[in-house]
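At this stage, I wrote out one protein, both as residues and as discrete backbone shape codes, and that material follows here.
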Amino acid sequence: MPAITIDGAQRRISIDARNPAFYREPLAAYAEIHAQCPAFFWEERQQWYFAGYDQVNALLRDRRFGRQILHVATREEVGLSAPKPHLRDFDALEEHSLLELEPPAHTRLRTLVNRAFVSRQIEQLRPDIEQLSHALIDGFEGDGEVELLKTYAETIPVTIIARMLGIPVEAAPDLLDWSHCMVRMYVFDPSHETELDANQASAEFAAYLREIIAEKHRNPADDLLTHMITSEKDGERLSEAELVSTTALLLNAGHEATVHQIGNAVRTILQSGPSAEDLFATEAATALTIEECLRFGAPLHIFQRYALSDVELEDGITLRKGDKIGLLLGAANVDPKKFTDPNAFRPTRDEGANVSFGAGLHFCIGAPLARLELNLSLPILFRRLPDMRLKNEPEVKDAFHFHGLERLNLVW
């Protein structure tokens, strides 16, 4: 069976998202989709998906769509099944997640958190990120080889976000385990075992965070968690449930995508041939290279939203209130109407913004942090290990939503 079959006339596509031919090299499938029907009904998912850059960018900003639906409709109205009892702890963490909220709740939470993530605040982390990058490379430089994801790509973002929040860095292994269990819930049709693991991780994660929050109440510090505890908006402070959800989201989102992006970027650079010395010769060259890595090897490929009312789009697609749509960020980044020769890695490309961090209300709050981590950790790695090369062909994770590697074995 082919990974993808397209009926362009009817705008209906069948995609086997578990077929390695699809998830290992999705850009080939995206090229077919762009050529035939960039807005299409995905048969297996039974919903509309959008791949064109302009449409994805517009729908991310379209206030007729939202990340939640139950603030404007009942489960019965939109045909949502009842919550699963064995996901109670996972659902409790999601309930107050910035990523899942709509205004006014989203506005209130984001305002309280946003100050810590503006570029001028993030820039203060530059020495920490540089020092950490060098220290990690010191640990494996003499070995002549390394598995980069565990030793470098995971360690940098989880350490930095933990320090920002004021959470002990020694907790990083637990934070990573909990996060990995939880994010497996965001792939298509998670198994019952995945659900149980995610719920257990959520319960343990929340219990740990409540202990940390209680300690911050007793002993406030100069960190983001203390800031969230003590900040007010319109006389209101975050509840404990909101603090737990927001902290969990920042920890998870603060490293998951960046891990994949570092891995994808290193693989892309090593396989595509341009000299790393040229790619990172200046700050301007580095910035262009990183943006091209984000475009070409986006770590997140799908962002989903609900229609908050009946909607008719310009291209004749009619949606009912409660219908879900899928926005293919990875496909929008390789739209030939937006980018010249889109499936080629061109580090000097300067053809406008990618949508790897989303857009609109839910634009990734951590984008400045992720960009700084990438702009520092990648040049340092390539300068320290100029003879670095792939030990073998990296295996891509079996998870279409998150495009990343299982392992990245390097030798020099």
